[in-house]
Amino acid sequence: MREIPVEQFRRTLEHEALQAAIYTATGRLMKERARVVAPEVLPDFEELRDQARQIKRHTLDNLDYYLEQFENAVVKRGGKVVWCKTGKEVVNFLQELAASKHARLIVKSKSMTTEEVSLNEQLAHQHVEVVETDLGEYILQLAGERPYHIVAPALHKTRYEVGELFRDKLGVEKETVPEKQTAIARRALREKFLAADIGITGANFLVADSGAVVLVTNEGNGRLTTTVPKVHVVVAGLEKLIPRAQALPVFLKLLGRSATGQPLTVYTSFLAGPRREGEIDGPEEFYVVLLDNGRTRLLEDGNKRESLYCIRCGACLNHCPVYRKIGGHNYPWVYSGPIGKIITPQFLGLAENAWLPFASSLCGACAEVCPVKIDIPTILLELRKEEQTLALRQGKGRAERLMFRLWAWVMKRPALYEVLGSIAASVLPCKEGQVWVRDIPAMLNRGPVNAWLSQRDFPTLPKASFRQIWRKRVAKG
Amino acid sequence: MAEVLERIGCVVDFPEKQTCCGQPAFNTGYWDEAREVACHFLDVFRGAECIVVPSGSCAAMVKLHFDELFAKDARRLDEARKLAPKVWEFSQFLVEVVGVEDVGARYEGVVTYHDSCHALRSLKIHDAPRRLLSHVRGLTLREMDSAGECCGFGGTFSVKFPELSGAITRTKIESILRTGADAVVSVDASCLMQIQGALSRAGLAVRTMHLAEVLACR
After folding, report:
1. Could you give the number of structural domains in chain B?
2. Fewer CB atoms < 10 Å away: N or C end of chain A?
3. How far is B48 from A433, CA to CA, in rounded Å?
4. Which fold has domain A6-296?
């Protein structure tokens, strides 16, 4: 099991500028979202959420049918579907494809799914240059970092940091005005688009009956990636399916609003198959790589399969008190925040990511904003239970389990509970009127007590317990 | 709480055998231990007319999570389902069941209200405590900018991830301080312990009060 990265947490928590950047950016996204989902702006918001959820449930319940339908439709349009069980298979496919096309340069539009398989690093081994074309992703690629956030990958970078990064990596003057920085990136990227052999994108939705891939972006880089290079490869998780295009308005209304507070993203592209006779643009070859990577394992679990409903809007991250403190790089995998906490252990294995489901105060803010109403807190509770069962089998966490066994044993014995209460009152600081203290006898200042005292004071116990007061009251009548 | 309930004409009984609802174990993944304690809860409160709880978190546990806990025990599940509708968080009971908003309280001071996560999001309690506070003579309620955001407690989260938990609380406290209130009021003792513990550590004079404490003042 990976340990809790306590030191890493501490570094993030103590980094004042970073804390301010995360808090401000997520706070802004929260406000923007609240504005456009307000009942006076979008009266049917709740109905849309329910509908989206039902569509996702229906699709996943019948996934085998829709996958087959999708593949047939893609093939009919002249494209090809590639099935990949693991990330390694995706890498292999793309390496072979790049080799067969003698590709030297690949442009990529933002895709979390390709982050799952560390595609860029893998292709670099083969001397194929992969360039991220989403502005945030481009910044991170130059900085050598992975995305900080599902939709706002460079959320933690200030414009001053970006200015220095562009100066160092692109050899330009330091520029701190975001619009001018965008122009610098645009010039650099335009050359890449024109020279690219292959374009790789993710997918926001895969439409089963028409074989269309739906891509929503804000920068237009998605359109260049899918139309200029001769080969277009879509890499998508197989949960991205929806039955037909008629279901799209529901999701499009929810996605932009939940993510960035936009009623609709700037570009919504429908891509279906390679260029056809008479068309003036589009790729010559069109591939859809469908990745499993642990997803079908979730299908078997009735309780937790709704984790796959996620449309990757990032709203749960913005509203999460934990994410807003530790940011996106302290999670073990590419998916951070509440959704990362539930899908990482399920995709990659709970034993290796055992601490993740516990890193939550269970405040429920995530579930409240989720556009498809994934009950993240309940799934976290399920995962915690599973982890404790696993730990029991492996003989781990004995001290904590013993503590809870003792606790339960006492809680079933009210008389003992009361006796222990009065013993505690005689050992621990006990004063008239409540006082908060930070010093307690050293022998007691261990484990959870010590953890509590590292941040907060303890209340002293009252001289009389509630039961004693109550009895007196009853006796008095 | 008992004083306030009696003041408005309720007959209050305190079954002395009660201990805990089982939530600490449930939230930490020890469902077997939680189940034992939850069974004790069901036994102690069997036959009660209304169970009023001075905690949104405990009320949510009994009302919402006993279902999951007893999913495989038909007899207990049935008991839990019969009991659940009788369980009320204190402010909700006053406003929705008894229909009282003015309990005749007086408290001189400016307070701000902290929504506990379970009261707000699990039980959808937002207006009830505010209405009760609005009728307290001498009291001014000043809303903070993040009333609905978590205080950082989260049960064992507070000791499994102490730095993180503490950092969340300090942000909450900044928001409390911006209101200039001299007390923070909530319906959950655990949030109040977290907030007060951090206030005290920071040497701040703002105090925490349970809603029942405020309503008991005359």
Report:
1. 2
2. C
3. 33
4. Rossmann fold (3.40.50)
